[in-house]
Each structure stands twice: as structure tokens, then as C-alpha cells.
Task: inverse folding
């Protein structure tokens, strides 16, 4: 089966769900495939001030997640009016240099949400990515890729794919299996419902496979 994780680099809820994502990949290694895809937030969805942003962080990190640390709102630049595509484009562009995993986007998220770095600025986002990527990433090449039409089209396409599920909360997870079943979770950050659903879908897929071994294909109409 396949698990697709839709995210926005600057989403606090995506930051909170990262341990769950890591656990799922470890628990179901060899039984499921995993990929992340960018789902850009609209400008109107971003906080308008650091005070507002901190209020959201106290709610998500403190009240809901009981986190021992508070996220850093220093990345927020009200003058951008919610335009923060840069870190997402950089994370997507890093795929072109062999970074299909989580390391670059996690470095970007940490730089913003834990350290307060202003990664809405393309140069800053590229710098953070290059720091995380080491010798495999070069700033000039990464910046060129991040500002290319090819990468922007990929990000727009994955965002539209996210919206096609008629959901609007990130993180989102789309689970599909070999027998055509699909489960969609939007906004949940707990392991239990995701793991239970994956277990159920794997069990159903295995049952179909066992039936096919014993009984073959269905009779012709």
C-alpha cells in the first residue's frame, strides 16, 4: 500500500506530526511505500502578527500537544502578507539533487519554527537547505531549480491534488491499497488512527491475495 503525506513546511501542525510520520515509516517498512508532497497554504491562512502566531503556538504546542518547548514565531514577516512559497519550493527542488527523503524540509522547518529564521526569504531558505545537504547541494544550482517553472509546476500540481480530496487541513494523509481502497485523514496528528487504518487495509489486501491463490480470478459474467 501507499501513504502520501501532504504538508506545508511552515505549518506548526506538520511539525507536531513529524514523529508520527517517522514512526509509520519505521513500523511499516517493507509493507508500505511512503512519500511526502507539498500542499501550499493560502496567504490568508497564515498569521498576521507574531502575537497571533504565538497564540496559535500556545494552543497547539501547549494545550493540545503538551510540548516541552514552544515554537518560535520569529520567521513571521507580516509585510509578506502570507507569501511563503520559498521554503516549499526549495524543499521540492532538493528532490532534483537526490534528496527525496525528509532531511531538507525538516531542516527548513526547524530553522523557522525552532530557531525563528526568516526562511520566507529565498536566499535564507536556500542557505538552510545547503547547510543541511552538505556537499551534495550547491546554492546557485538549488536556487535556480527552486525558481524554475518545472519545480513550481510540481508544487502547484501537488497542491491541487491535495485540494482534490476536498480537504483543507495540513497535515493530511492519503492511504491507498492494492485493492482500490482509500482513506483520507486531514488535520489529525495522532499515531493510533493512522496505524489502525493501515493495519486494516493491509489485512484486507492480504485476504484478497489469499482468496486469489485458492480460487483464482472471478468467473466471467
Result:
Amino acid at each position: 500500500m501507499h501513504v502520501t503525506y501532504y504538508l506545508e513546511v511552515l505549518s506548526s501542525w506538520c511539525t507536531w506530526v513529524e514523529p508520527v510520520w517517522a514512526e509509520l515509516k519505521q513500523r511499516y517498512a517493507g509493507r508500505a511505500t511512503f512519500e511526502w508532497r507539498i500542499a501550499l497554504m493560502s496567504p490568508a491562512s497564515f498569521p498576521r502578527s507574531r502575537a497571533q502566531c504565538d497564540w496559535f503556538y500556545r494552543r497547539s504546542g501547549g494545550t493540545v500537544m503538551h510540548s516541552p518547548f514552544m515554537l518560535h514565531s520569529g520567521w513571521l514577516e507580516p509585510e509578506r502578507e502570507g507569501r511563503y512559497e520559498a521554503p516549499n519550493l526549495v524543499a521540492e527542488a532538493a528532490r532534483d539533487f537526490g534528496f527525496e527523503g525528509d532531511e531538507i524540509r525538516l531542516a527548513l522547518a526547524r530553522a523557522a519554527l525552532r530557531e525563528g529564521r526568516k526562511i520566507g526569504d529565498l536566499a535564507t531558505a536556500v542557505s538552510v537547505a545547503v547547510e543541511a545537504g552538505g556537499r551534495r547541494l550547491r546554492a546557485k544550482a538549488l536556487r535556480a531549480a527552486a525558481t524554475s517553472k518545472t519545480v513550481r509546476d510540481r508544487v502547484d500540481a501537488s497542491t491541487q491534488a491535495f485540494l482534490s480530496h476536498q480537504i483543507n487541513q495540513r497535515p493530511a494523509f492519503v492511504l491507498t491499497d492494492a485493492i482500490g481502497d482509500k482513506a483520507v485523514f486531514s488535520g489529525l496528528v495522532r499515531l493510533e488512527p493512522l496505524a489502525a487504518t493501515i493495519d486494516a487495509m493491509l489485512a484486507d489486501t492480504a485476504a484478497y491475495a489469499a482468496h486469489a491463490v485458492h480460487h483464482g480470478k472471478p468467473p466471467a459474467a
About this structure: The beta strands are 2-7, 33-38, 172-176, 182-186. The first strand starts at residue 2 and ends at 7. The domain at 7-170 is CATH 3.40.30.10 (Glutaredoxin).
